[in-house]
Specification:
mainly alpha; 5 helices; 146 residues
Amino acid sequence: MKAGLLSTTISGTFAGMSTAALTGPLAVPLDSDLLFQSLVERLQFSNAAEEWSRCINILNRWEEEHLLVDHPAPEKLAQHKKIVERLMFFGQPCAFISSHPEFDDSDTAGMVFATQQILRDKLRMFHNPISQEEADRILQEVFPEP
């Protein structure tokens, strides 16, 4: 083996290193069943996901002011789309982590799922609206005139 390079053996352990040497800064061996949960806790994932989810409340107030008007400005619609897409992008790693089999915080997992759904709905509602004719047809179907 060349100096400074590590090679792995067939068993998956690093040649010339003991399991103790594979202990990371969390004082949990890298091959431990506790590694995933230790990283989640150390990185305060649930708190970060909650902060991300709270952005929906701020976005709701912004929408009320700028988009829930008769004729929203095109630049405000473009700004909104960019905000929603950024929040959706940030939500992807949250969803990935919270869907891991070893993630044991079902409340956070549910919050992440719900926040992603809200963001998808906002994108569809504000940026792919139905036509007036379609809206009228649905209203007539749901509330038929006698």
